[in-house]
Amino acid sequence: MDIFTNGDLGVDGNTSHETGQERLEGTKSQGYNHSDPLDMFIGIELLLRFKPLFLPLYSLVVVVAGVGNSFLLACILSDKKLHNATNFFISNLAAGDLLMCLTCVPLTVSYAFDSRGWAFGRVLCHLVPLLQCATVFVSVLSLTAIAVDRYVVVAHPVRRRISVWSCGAVSLGVWLLSLALAAPQSLYTRYMDLRPNGIDLVVCEEFWPHTGNLRLLYSCFTLIASYMIPLLSVSISYCAITVSLKRYSVPGEPSNSQQRWSQRRRKTFSLLVASVLAFALCWLPLQVLTLMLDLDPDFHIIGKRYINVLQVCCHLVAMSSACYNPFIYASLHSKVRMHLKGYLCPCRHRQREMVERVSSRS
């Protein structure tokens, strides 16, 4: 897990398991105080100084993302009028964010600030990196699915919408593909308990093969996939809709599809673009920092003392991406705002429903 810096462990991202363990165990012969792991780590002491700042911020992210995405899922599932393909993919996006903020964030933060290292066992050591990386690909593929669905709806309004079962199949495929793409990170994660060797430390870190540049290639692939896929999908969808509408329109006479597109364009693509930009901007610092560490294993660009703090800062910004989609969706969707008012002011909401029923009967 990259949040606990490899630089402090004296190993880089391309170090093998055996070499990493030799270096870790070799600290016994260097005169370190084994009862105090802070003596082994250059940057952890600086990081612990900021613990009173980071813990409340992480707690805020977990609470806001947890409540926001739970509310968004509840709105979509409870209102049959919101049961369509776009909202189904948005709920898939919210489910991934909810899973990440409730499982990955607390365990990763605990690992970053606990001087004894990983405290959750071997299974979670492999599972947490897998889920954290998989949720990134779930977000990317869900945003891509939303862009494709928007193109089909606007450019081909007569075509039959994708069914609920088909949406479920697409979502299942998104999760399976995301888990497959995230598997290398979990595969090369090693759980090493150094307590039998006299060091009160349990390490859960990535140790990639020393031969080749697999770690660097995977970092480049993740960086490109995280940005090129959603940004290209939105751009291509927008251009395809524009071309399709111009092709089937009469010059000087706006068609029904053009009118429909002009009405929905701002709301629909504002939601999609805002979600893509929020995701891309939040994950950019962590992806760039990870790539820099892979390119600079000897820490010439960034000193070891500051790696931990920078990684936690970038990780916090990346995790905050789970907070924004509920606000973006609520600000652009009147039905979600109506549900929100109903949850916050149930009495007024019931009165309004009664008035609407009476007026509809009359």
UniProtKB/TrEMBL annotation:
Keywords: G-protein coupled receptor, Membrane, Receptor, Transducer, Transmembrane, Transmembrane helix. GO terms for molecular function: neuropeptide binding; neuropeptide Y receptor activity. The chain crosses the membrane at residues 57-77, 89-113, 119-141, 162-183, 216-241, 268-286, 306-332. It is a multi-pass membrane protein. Gene3D superfamilies: Rhodopsin 7-helix transmembrane proteins. It comes from the Eukaryota. Residues 1-31 are annotated as: Disordered. It is found in: Membrane. The keyword Heme does not apply. InterPro entries: GPCR_Rhodpsn, GPCR_Rhodpsn_7TM, Prolrel_pep_rcpt. Coiled coil: none annotated. GO terms for cellular component: neuron projection; plasma membrane. Residues 68-329 form the G-protein coupled receptors family 1 profile domain. Its main location: membrane. Belongs to the G-protein coupled receptor 1 family. This is G-protein coupled receptors family 1 profile domain-containing protein. It comes from Pogonophryne albipinna.
